[in-house]
Amino acid sequence: MEDSYKHKGLRQNLVKELKRKGIDDLNILNAISKVPRHFFLDKAFAEWAYKDTAFPIEADQTISQPYTVAFQTQLLNVEKSDKILEIGTGSGYQATILAELGAKVYSIERQETLFKKTNRLLERIGYGRIRTLFGDGYKGAPRFAPFDKILVTAGADEIPNDLLSQLKIGGIMVIPVGSGDVQEMKRITRTGETKFKKENFGKFKFVPFLKGVNKPK
Fold this sequence. Notes:
Distance between the termini: 31 Å
CATH class of the domain at 54-204: Alpha Beta
CATH architecture of the domain at 54-204: 3-Layer(aba) Sandwich
Order of helices and strands: HHEEHEHEHEEHEEE
CATH superfamily of the domain at 54-204: Vaccinia Virus protein VP39
Number of strands: 9
Structural class: alpha/beta
Strand order of the largest sheet: 5-4-3-6-7-8-9
Strand content: 15-25%
């Protein structure tokens, strides 16, 4: 897989665009400038990789808009060695950004076909340290809990209690919540055994956060 000077230049232009839109965390911008986003799209659509837009991938999912990736990541306040659970591996792009920030990443995908494809891709492009899991994101990953941070990359009708319980005290979850086509971006900080602080950060549009798993017949 080739990462040419042209691709690198397009990434720098994308970083400038994200800065103009208010992303100011230099570590996140550096990660976005480093990760070849075109690796996560089929070659036929590589020209779309560095536009600030979401794009369809397999299994009726999308690779998120770069601004959304950066915005959610910025809300997480990622620190090196954070143990982070990502719900919705999708293409794998968001997980690689978290890994570039020094996090230990666990990522769950419910679409088996997508899980297998993305797992192979991450190994091939040097991100085999990301722990990919096939399962129901609503249930989280209790075997590896508790987590410093949890990032949900699909629109939830409700905040799953299982995910709240898997956050460390002091931990942060970022999740888009709302029924219908548009969700409210929320940051939830666990402040005690049963206490949570909730903050809202505007409207976004995500694919639905679905329960269960999907295995091809």
